[in-house]
Amino acid sequence: MRKVIFDTDTASDDAIALMLALDFFEVVGVTIVAGNVKYENEVNNALFTLEYLGKSDIPVFLGARRPILGQWRTVEEVHGKNGFGDWEYPKSSKKPESEFAVDAIIRLSKEYNGELEILAVSPLTNIALAYLKDSHIANRIKKIWVMGGAFSRGNTTELAEFNFWVDPEAVDIILNAGFNITIVPWEVAEETATITDEEWDKIEKIRSKRSEFFIRVNRTLREYSKSVGSKGSVHPDSLTVTIAYDNSLIAEKINKYVTVDLCSKSRGAMLIDWYNLKKSKPNAEIVTKVDSLKFKKYLFEALSKA
């Protein structure tokens, strides 16, 4: 199986994405980064998810507790106060590792030189710090799958998607480091990875341990998504992990030179050089269309497992 690091600010959809990653890949480590909710809740959510899914042997490494520069806010209104829809789940007996996540990323990139991939479904702070400490990591990492950015319909500001908005400096570092990157933007997820009311009802009727987990952790996400105009709960992280596993989900993609705005009201906005105005070599593959039915088939199959 392909070896991956799952880099996460563990809240509702992150947990489902982690479940899929455990099915699709050999997860050699889970690294936690500041983002969605209070840091301690992100850690607890990751530990509980692994224990709940019977994967307590997978190490969890604690990473950056803040972005590189600037300030951000957590979004408990999206995921619930604890990030898991306010589910009062039992405290996990699993403990995080003592090794700093940045050091673990560097070490694992050497241990699995040329074959390690990163599922980056969160702000890119940990990965950027790993690159700043060891720039050769860009040559050792096979691929980074990034959930982030928006073409023009931001979910945090008018233009910025949350992960890019939290730490745009980290995005800028990663985009200019020479990594092999595929980006799954927000609009693609909203259009193809939204669980409608009808689909939600179907998941409730599965009545498996995993489907119950899905319903519990995503309750607040569903309510919030619908309150801002979506047709149901949106699952960008799960979509990104599934695309990483099966590239045939990608119906259309482009290769472009991508940057990110670091200042003003558009801070965190993804900037695409559509017409090669800068005459720069493309630095990222961007997914523009996805097979929604295929994604949801994978999701429902995973949720139906015992």
UniProtKB/TrEMBL annotation:
Inosine/uridine-preferring nucleoside hydrolase domain sequence ranges: 4-296
PROSITE patterns found in the cross-reference section: IUNH
Record InterPro entries: I/U_nuclsd_hydro_CS, Inosine/uridine_hydrolase_dom, IUN_hydrolase, Ribo_hydro-like
Entry-linked Pfam families: IU_nuc_hydro
Sorted UniProt keywords: Glycosidase, Hydrolase
CDD domains for the chain: nuc_hydro_CeIAG
Source organism superkingdom: Archaea
GO molecular function: hydrolase activity, hydrolyzing N-glycosyl compounds
Record carries keyword Acetylation: no
Keyword Zinc: no
Protein name (record): Nucleoside hydrolase
Biological source species: Sulfurisphaera javensis
Organism lineage string: Archaea, Thermoproteota, Thermoprotei, Sulfolobales, Sulfolobaceae
